[in-house]
């Protein structure tokens, strides 16, 4: 199990997350304690919310619209096939566009950072990426955080008008002997990063200073996200087996989803992509 991309839908009061290796999008409704899942045609790296209630998902070969309740998966935008890359970490930005980074199938520097909007427009923001992770945005949308996990630091970029500029090192995770995995931003603008190699969660101030370091409930936490009725529960996905041999948990609860309460911190409602396209666009 490769748990990733936890995503809280505040309208439905539902948590989504992906099990990439099993090709599943899972969901849980805490109010009724009910769960469900939807199969995808290939490994799924990340998901985002759409205005119409569906999800936008980054799969191996491109971007798909997913109706989890109906189990319907529809191609939305499929780039020319790059056999050496699959799409990995992604999030909807504050302007309502899905930004998703790729990774080399063998961790080669062939990944690309894509951005798509609901009209089917697409652009490549960066390339030469080995494993795209830690993608998230400041509360005002003016800063994008992003990492190539094998570099072992998180970068920050100015994201004014959606253009990437002024790249700088935001947080050096080498000091913790870990690469950064998934990340999220809370309502105070602090950045939470999963330190997947050492079983910890780090919270950094907007200036990049370490504010706290928490022990995760398992040895390989993969991504945090806030949810719950008041957005005060920190959900954390984890890895059992990444499927590549690079990450295998020794913890009996590896691959489980965890909920951490009592932090006294709240998250932000996730943005949604507004779909304006009626058919699959050409790339």
Automatic annotation (TrEMBL):
Pfam families: SGL (PF08450)
Cofactor(s) the protein needs: Zn(2+)
Binding site for substrate: 86, 88
Active-site residues per Swiss-Prot or TrEMBL entry: 181
UniProt cross-references to InterPro entries, sorted A to Z: 6-blade_b-propeller_TolB-like, SGL, SMP-30
Cofactor note: Binds 1 divalent metal cation per subunit.
Keyword Metal-binding: yes
Keywords linked to the UniProt accession: Metal-binding, Zinc
GO annotation (BP), single: L-ascorbic acid biosynthetic process
Binding residues annotated for a divalent metal cation, in chain numbering: 4, 133, 181
Domain called SMP-30/Gluconolactonase/LRE-like region: residue spans: 2-239
Repeat recorded as keyword: no
GO molecular function: calcium ion binding; gluconolactonase activity
Similarity comment: Belongs to the SMP-30/CGR1 family.
Protein name: Transcriptional regulator
């Amino acid at each position: 199990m490769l748990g990733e991309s936890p995503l809280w839908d505040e309208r439905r009061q539902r948590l989504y997350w992906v099990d990439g290796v099993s090709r599943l999008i899972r969901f849980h409704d805490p109010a009724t304690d009910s769960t469900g899942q939807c199969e995808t045609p290939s490994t799924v790296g990340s998901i985002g919310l759409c205005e119409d209630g569906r999800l936008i998902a980054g799969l191996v070969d491109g971007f798909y619209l997913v109706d989890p309740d109906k189990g319907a998966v529809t191609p939305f935008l499929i780039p020319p096939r790059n056999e050496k890359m699959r799409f990995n970490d992604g999030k909807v930005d504050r302007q309502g566009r899905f930004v998703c980074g790729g990774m080399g199938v063998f961790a080669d520097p062939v990944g690309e950072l894509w951005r798509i909007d609901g009209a089917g427009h697409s652009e490549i923001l960066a390339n030469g990426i080995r494993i795209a992770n830690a993608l998230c945005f400041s509360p005002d949308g003016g800063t994008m955080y992003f990492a190539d996990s094998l570099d072992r630091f998180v970068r920050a970029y100015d994201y004014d008008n959606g253009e990437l500029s002024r790249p700088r090192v935001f947080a050096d995770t080498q000091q913790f002997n870990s690469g950064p995995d998934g990340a999220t931003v809370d309502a105070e603008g602090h950045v939470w990063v999963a330190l997947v190699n050492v079983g910890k969660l780090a919270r950094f101030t907007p200036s990049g200073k370490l504010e706290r370091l928490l022990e995760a409930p398992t040895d390989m936490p993969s991504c945090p996200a806030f949810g719950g009725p008041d957005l005060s529960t920190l959900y954390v996905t984890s890895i059992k087996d990444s499927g590549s041999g690079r990450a295998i948990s020794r913890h009996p609860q590896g691959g489980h989803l965890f909920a951490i309460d009592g932090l006294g911190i709240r998250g932000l409602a996730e943005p949604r992509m507004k779909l304006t396209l009626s058919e699959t666009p050409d790339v």
